[in-house]
Amino acid sequence: MSGFPTSFHVGPLVFHTYGFGLAIAFYVAFIYARRRLRRADVNVEPFTRYTVWLIVSGLVGARLANIATNWSYYSGHLGRMIAVWQGGLASFGGIALALVVGLILQRRWWPKTQLTRFTDALVPALIAGWALGRVLGPQFMVDGGGHLTNQWFGLHYAGQVGKRVPVPLIQGAEDALLWLALLGVEKTRRTYTVGVVTGIGMIVWGLVRALDERLLLGQESHSGSIGVQLAGIALAVAGVITLIVHRPRHAELSTTSTPS
Q: Are 69 and 224 in contact (CB under 8 A)?
């Protein structure tokens, strides 16, 4: 954000402000997720290792997706493929690879725990961490804003000319509202919520992320932008399938209903 340092130096080392913000968001999400898993009677002993694997696979996937969607640049600068400190991470690439790794490790380390019971505990923590990460991360990075705007809510961002739509703040607010909504779902459907929290989270987050990419970032023709939109729709479709598979059956409703 203009007027706020996007990086600072300690001797010969350069530290990016958004990196510290993302680190804070990661830590908060980790503590919150572990707490939720413990409340769901899930063994949290392997969770630190699980989180490390998710972070590593997420970074690798995000970098590979960025390289794939900007191959015309990297093909001429092969040495910069590993220069992650210069930026260049595609969030949906990270989510895609981390999702695969997460599913494999969940089956390995929690074989007796139903997958959707595990994800119902994990998804709200991931969304809460994402909300905090959008505010503390991209908000303070170079080129962090959306398209040009003359509206009162526009902000100046480093590396971008003119006032920009504050996409990170908007996405942070969207994710915070989704987190609160999922907690409300847990409270009102506590007796048969398995899979419902996960499905709703996938649908809403996927659709909103796709719409943000198309309407707020102004890169409809960019291959990476189109990939984000398609990935968001795919995530939402997977969420619909999850809700259908785990929809409450008539017998379940009968046993959980309160006698009049």
A: yes
